[in-house]
Amino acid sequence: MELRPPLPTTTLRNARGLRRDMTDAERKLWRHLRNGGLLGLKFRRQHPMPPYVVDFYCEALKLVVELDGSQHSEAADAERMRYLQSQGMHVLRFWNNDVMMQADAVLETILYFVGARTLTPTPLPAGEGL
């Protein structure tokens, strides 16, 4: 079992506040992701990844799903994306408006990513098997 250092208090407090005050788009997407609603995968909402808190995170796939509203800064988002990718995360970004108006298309994009990551098992070398 991997031991992780404790989360910084400010990051933890920020994550709790964000969970309590989710946007309408975050609530809508969460209804589809929670309780294994997407192919049985476990997603966490407003998950701390110091120094950031990501909107949704699936540990099994190292997948971060971020929703952006009009208040987001392209430079800050790019820095955040670089950091998350440097930590081995895959990041999918969507606009809040896309979730609100085209939730099915957003879910299809996530499903496409999940399928690309899980539906192509690596074949065993010749002579190896069960």
Automatic annotation (TrEMBL):
Keywords on record: Endonuclease, Hydrolase, Nuclease
Top-level taxon of origin: Bacteria
DUF559 domain mapped to chain residues: 12-113
Record InterPro entries: DUF559 (IPR007569), Endonuclease_DUF559_bact (IPR047216), Restrct_endonuc-II-like (IPR011335)
Molecular function as annotated in GO: endonuclease activity
Hydrolase is among the record's keywords: yes
Pfam family, one: DUF559
Protein's name in the database: Endonuclease domain-containing protein
